[in-house]
């Protein structure tokens, strides 16, 4: 497994109504936030730009889609 890979052991079944427990959402949010921080860190090392600039560019790209 590579350094930045995520191992998915199983995918929990989500009820058809889309309801999830607050704990599950909190765990997922923390995982996504950690991945975002790691990605920005890699981009900073690669491009030499500050994280604030990278976040602005990322937000512009996401808003244009």
Strand residues, percent: under 5%
Structural class call reads mainly alpha
Share of helix among residues?
55-70%
| Biggest sheet statistics | none
- Low-confidence runs of at least 5 consecutive residues: none
Q: How is the quaternary structure best described?
A: single chain
Strand runs, count: 0
- Number of alpha- plus pi-helical segments: 2
Q: How confident is the prediction overall: mean pLDDT?
A: 83
Large-scale geometry: extended
Whole-number radius of gyration?
Answer: 16 Å
Could you state the order of secondary-structure elements as H and E? HH
First-residue to last-residue Cα separation: 31 Å
Relevant terms:
65 residues; mainly alpha
Describe it for me?
It is a single chain. The protein is an all-alpha fold and 65 residues long. It has a domain at 22-64. The protein contains two helices and no strands. It has helices at 22-47, 51-64. It is extended. The model has no long low-confidence stretch (mean pLDDT 83).
